[in-house]
Every structure is written in C-alpha cells, then in structure tokens.
Amino acid sequence: MNKPKTSIFPLRPGSRTGRGLRLSSKLRSIQVIITLTFTAVTVLVAVIVSFMLYNKFSRTAEENASLNMQQIIEQVNQNLGLYVKGMGNIFERAADQISSSASIDSELLSERMNTLMSSREDLVSAAVFTPEGKFVVGTPGLSMRLNTQLENQSWFTSAVKSEDISYSAPHIQNLFKGRYTWVVSVSKMVKYREAGSLKNGILLLDFNFRTIDELSRQVKLGKRGYAYILDSMGNIVYHPQQQLIYAGLKYENVEPVLEYAYRSYLDDSTGEKRFITVRTLAQTGWKIVGVAYYDEVVTTKQDLNRFLIWFLAVVLLCVIAVSVYLSWLIASPIRKLERTVKLVGEGDLNTPINVSGAYEVEQLSKRFNLMLQRIRQLMDQIIYEQESQRKGELEVLQSQINPHFLYNTLNSVIRLAERGKNDEVITMIQSLSKFFRISLSKGKNFITVQEELDHIRHYLVIQSFRFKNKFRYEIKAQDEVLQYQTIKLILQPIVENALYHGIEMLPDEGFVSITAELVQGIIVIKVSDNGIGMSRETLSTILSGGVKNGGGSGVGVRNVNERIGLYYGREFGLAFESELEEGTTVTIMFPAARPPEPPEEQKEEDATS
Asked: What is the pTM of this model?
C-alpha cells in the first residue's frame, strides 16, 4: 500500500497556505500572546476593581446594617430566652412542690402555691388536671367554665405526648370564669398524691403576654424596621402591625423564615427590598424575625459611576501601551534564545548562548550552556567508558587464558622433565592446574579473598620456576579477611607488572610481599616489591594510559582500577607509591562484603570437585 508523501520543500511566499501559516505563527508568537494576555488580564482586573469600588459603599452599608440588625435580634433572642428560662424555673418549682406534697389538697401546698403566684406579676393562674381532662386543684378563687374542650388545646395534648416542658403559642385563656387573658401556657405531666395514692396529672401555669410584648416593641431597626415573632407552625405570635395583617392589608413572607433556625438574607417578595434576620428561641421553637428596609441603608452611586467610567478609559489606554512595550522587551531575548537553541537542535553542540535581558532569560542561557557542556562531557565519558570496558573485557579474557604465559610455562615443564626433576614438574603442573581453575571460576566474576590469594600464590610458584628462583615472595592475610568477596583476577596484573617491570631488571634477588587486612569495613590489599621503582611522572600517569610502563601497555592495571570503580564506586580502586631504585607499593581498596550462600547443589558439586 502506497503511503502519502510528505513534502519537505518550503511553501511559496505567495501561496494561501504559506500566508495562513505565517499569520498563525504570528498570532502564536510570544509577543502577541503576552500583549493580548497582559491587556486582557489588566482590563479584567480593572473591571473587577471598578466593580468592587462601585459596590464598596453599598456593601459596607449592607454589612453594617445586617450586622447591627443581627446584634439587635440576637439581644432580643437572649432576653426572651432568659424570660422563657425563668418561666421554666417557676414551673419546675411548682412541680417539685406538688410532687413532694403529702396531698394535693393540703393547706401547706395551697399556701406555697399562693406564695409562688404572688412572687411573679406575670403569673396569671396555676392548675392541675387529670390526663382525662378533669380539674383537680387550682389557684384559689378559680372556677372552671363549662365546655372548655381543654383535651383539644395544644398545651394539654403536648403535655400528654411529651415528657418535657411544653410552651404554647400566645392564646386567650378560656378555662376559668371571668378571665379572658392573653397568655402563654406552660404545661407538663407531674406526679401528685391524692387519698394516699400516687397519680399522674398535668400541671398548667399561665403567664401573661405583656412582658414578651414589651420586649418585642423595644426593637428599633431604622425608621420603618421592626421585629415580629412566629411559632414553629408559622403562626404569628407577635407583630407590631398585627391588626393590618389580620385585616389583609399587610403581608409577611414566612416560608423562607420557617426553613432555617439561624439566617440572614435579602427579601423582595413584598415589592420592597428588605434585610431579614432570623433567630430561633431554643426553649419554645419561636422564630424572632427582624426586618430592615434596604433603601434606608444604601446611599447614592452617581459620583462613583462617573469616576469609574473615567478610570476604565485611562486604564485601558495605559495598559495597551505598557503591554506592547513589555511584550517586546520580554520576547526579544527569547527569540534570540530560540534561534540559538535551533542551531543546537541541528547538532551544533559547540554553539555558545549569550543572551541578555530578564534575569530568568539570562539564567536560562547560563544553564543551557552548562547543560551543553555537561552533554559534551557525558558523551566523551561514554566514549571513554565504552572503550575502557571493551579493553577491560579483552584484558580479562587474556588474563584468564594467556597463550604466551601457558606456552612459557609448558616449555619450563618440558625442560624440568628433561632434567629429570620430577618433583618440580609435579609442583609446577599442580600450580598451573589450580591457577587456571581459579581463573575460570565457573564463569563467576566474584570469588573470595582466600581464592584470590591462592590464585596469585600458584602464579608466583610458576613464575619462580621460570625466573629460576630470582625472587622470593611472602603472602600474609588476616583470618577474618579471607571469607570476604572480591572481584577475581585483580592481583595478577599488579604482580605481573612487579615481576616484569620491577624485579626482572634487578641484578640482585627480588622480593614480593602481599598483605591483606580489614580496616574499618574496608579491605586493604598491598602488593610491594623491591624493584627499580617508577619516576613521579610515570606514577602520575600510570592509570591514565599516558605512558608505556617499561614497554607494557598498562592495560591490566588500568582495567583492575576501572573494574573496582565500576563495581564499588569511584572512591575505591588502586593507589601507587614508588621511589626509583627502592621499589613500588600498590594498595587495593574495596568495601568488605560476604559472598552469598550457594545453593545445596552447588555445595555438593564443589565438595565432589
């Protein structure tokens, strides 16, 4: 299936598509974006600020009026709450006296109830009824009217259904003859004794409405504001214009009031905008509603309107001029930076970026230069590490099976056999076998320090025959070091250098010393010889490959150092100390780590082998 081809040729300047792309690019340029964004944001902020200023005075007046009204209504609510609480306390005292009395018709109880009645001017009457609605006892001088139907009255039914004190809505007391007082009835089921038996009864206390009326009339909310009281069913308990409401000449929207126990809101259901504040009396569930008229609070806005029109016009002109200049100031160095980065993207990593302008742009330029420098360093490092790894792998393979070393060793075995030195032949072949066995290590990269020292011991045994006992050697190691783990074949290249480039040229007997010890969690292995030593120049460049160490390449030593740094970190590796005609000491350092426990099959295989 043929795929559509993508053209890589530039569009002709006169083509519609080219003009469209250039227009789209300009519209998406940072200068245009900054200009439009800055203008839009600033104009938006100016409009918002203007709107805030426009409503500042009215909102402040509204808040102050609302807060003032809330405080007044809250105070009325507290005063009424205290008064209702006092009613409840009087009721509890009367109930306690009745419950503790030996008989409901005792003279002592009658005296106490008379004293209680005389202590409160607002206490109109007190009486006890049976749950069936029969009169038991009451304030002296009271006689019941006929057909009162008290079983259907709210205070009676509430007392029968609830164990708490019930407060009725204000109503005309029609129970007793000669009295038609506007009262609030407080009732509750109580215990009393009659003829020696304990019975249930309903205690009724009637309080006149005068005190509540006076507390409500004291509320002043502006010239026309007022407060009124609703019961929990939405019936008006008190209203300063109650006659107008009953006559249908005034309307109060009570539906929103009944939805909340604590609320402040604006209402315009009556045709005028009014502040409404609602508080609920906890004991009775009555809602105290404050009403304040909006037009008494909000002031005129004509002067502010004229000011804001001029303000918006001036701001708009200034913003356009400033935004154009600032966008050019910001976009100019960014465009320069974009051109330079484009060159880098095309592969020119040596292009420096020197862009001046805003602090962030300058910092971006500097950081980009540092990034380019770091990229170049990393590329060089990757090349170097890949080359070193390749040479190291080659050196490891060479050190595992070195044909030249094997050829020379076998020749030495042949010469010893021809001379009839069978014991030396056996020793040399055994050392060669163990040497290659440890070198191979079944493909493992890590062996124990004990195995590494055994490997170099067999190597020295073989070399002592080849060098015709021209040198002596000594291997010492702490016992606790032997079981730790090490990279294999790290000693042979160093000992080989000591023999071939240090001791072989000596006229006298050479000496190689190898020590291994544990120092603060670090394994330290030292290889010392009494060879011809190295100069400071050679010593400073031995790991960098800058010299040919006595004709050798030095790849083995560098490989050991790179392998240790690769596995354990760059802070570990080789350290050299050398003096001409005195000898050389090489220190190997790496962290102590125990080898993992081999599986049972491996243990059995090692035991059999």
From this structure: 0.41
